């Protein structure tokens, strides 16, 4: 089988193998820049075939891995549960390895631990080519492909790939070469036909292949895939596993979790690692599982899929003693007796290095911060231009709500008999800006969050640059929405025809929008959609109470005074009221047939207890809110990224 991949291989920031031809499945690369890769002439095994290559292959060995999950939170008592129990194993290079087991056996957990995705609660040692895994180095040569396809739905296959190439390949690689690499990967993964299709329009199998293609751009030597076949029909499963098998021909170590493969799919794997209840039941060659079962005294019945049978054994369907006996026979993963060629496994003299637990992004990312920002901004603006909710619906809502409020409060701004109505309108405007912006962010950010977790772990960019791009991309659309709304409402309701007042009004609304977005980002980053949609509006009520609308600030009980200082709506209200009724505004015209209680702005301001001379302070307060909330949202994001691991 001939595997064709990009001819130039870029690892980390260096081009390590120029003009390579993958023929017969082998690449020949110069020693790589990685510390943890084996640049010696090595032998590795693919199936039963002994291969020889100069190769930066990665051999993974793990010893006594334990994972303890902590359950509960600050409100409930914390409890601990051991999920993996001192499992040991070995995943040689150039092999397609399946981690199998019943549901809840700990497959995904083991994959998370080995990839370095999960760090908290993990004990035991992972060796990479005989040396303790240095996480920072290991992440440079590996990638993790999640079970759910976390793709940018609004970008086409090609656009998704080019973004990956721009972020994962050094900036020194010319665009023409990046295009070539992308094209070659798409051909290999049979995606060239769908190049111009948006990711949202792909089938399940195509999405899975695109997820793999995105990570292949940096040519990782180790690939971790969580259930790559879940949700695919049998033909797509076969295509997907065939492609992975093809990739192992280049010496890559490919480790997948898989539920219950069909017999034909099962035989495509070189090696299998069976887990049950966090213990290892079997590890070794796929073809040697049947002899193993015979040796332990549970022969696989004729015409029975061995993969099904071993899962049935693992589930205890044939008795609880069976899994225990198998764990004993494999020594919980220590035995390599059933490997395809145990005598020829590379013998590393193991030694322990300093393992970097949580590594900083610096030096880990293939491109500069500036390049990351540039690419992320480009992607962000492209998404914005195509996003029906975030852009078009948002613009539309602002226009429609503006016209609705404008019609209800038609010419109320310059009518002495409608001053109180106009005051209500000003508050309604702030509520609109706050709720629309905050809820939109709360609803849309969790989806971005899952993509961020994947891309950040796979070293596409730093959190700082991601956050900066999210903030910058939203500014133009926020300005457009707020400006359209302000123009409509300001002129329909006949507010003072004064450019200074208009600018003061617009600036206050704009700042409320940006602050509300900060709140939305914080909530969206921490909570899922369900909890976020509960928390967001719930927090709004005290904000409104302490704004000075409804209950005047002077009427607040002394012990509750602090509330008015933490409500950004208070500063927003003061700002817009000051813009409309402050600056020593003249008496408001009163229609002849109406009674105008509040035609004197000064008296009205005293009545509602809003100070109109505080505009500068209001702006400063809103800027402080903006600054604190944006920093807090970043801290929450950072915490979230660390805590999921
Ligand atoms: N952070 C956690 N907190 C509590 N329990 C956890 C945590 N992570 C995993 N578990 C539990 O550990 C067990 C193994 O989970 P894991 O997702 O690894 O199983 P799996 O074999 O991949 O299952 P499936 O095939 O259904 O995805 C499950 O019972 C799960 O509930």
From TrEMBL:
Record has GTP-binding as a keyword: no
Membrane topology qualifier: Multi-pass membrane protein
Coiled coil (UniProt feature): none
CDD domains for this protein: ABCG_EPDR
Keyword list, A-Z: ATP-binding, Membrane, Nucleotide-binding, Transmembrane, Transmembrane helix, Transport
Compartment(s): Membrane
Pfam families membership: ABC2_membrane (PF01061), ABC2_membrane_7 (PF19055), ABC_tran (PF00005)
GO annotation, cellular component aspect: plasma membrane
Residue spans crossing the bilayer: 391-410, 422-445, 466-491, 503-527, 534-553, 619-639
InterPro entries according to UniProt: AAA+_ATPase (IPR003593), ABC2_TM (IPR013525), ABC_transporter-like_ATP-bd (IPR003439), ABC_transporter-like_CS (IPR017871), ABCG_dom (IPR043926), ABCG_transporters (IPR050352), P-loop_NTPase (IPR027417)
Signal peptide positions (record): none
Residue ranges constituting the ABC transporter domain according to the UniProt record: 60-302
Domain of life: Eukaryota
GO molecular function, one term: ATP hydrolysis activity
Family note: Belongs to the ABC transporter superfamily. ABCG family. Eye pigment precursor importer (TC 3.A.1.204) subfamily.
Protein name per its UniProtKB record: ABC transporter domain-containing protein
The species this protein was found in: Psylliodes chrysocephalus
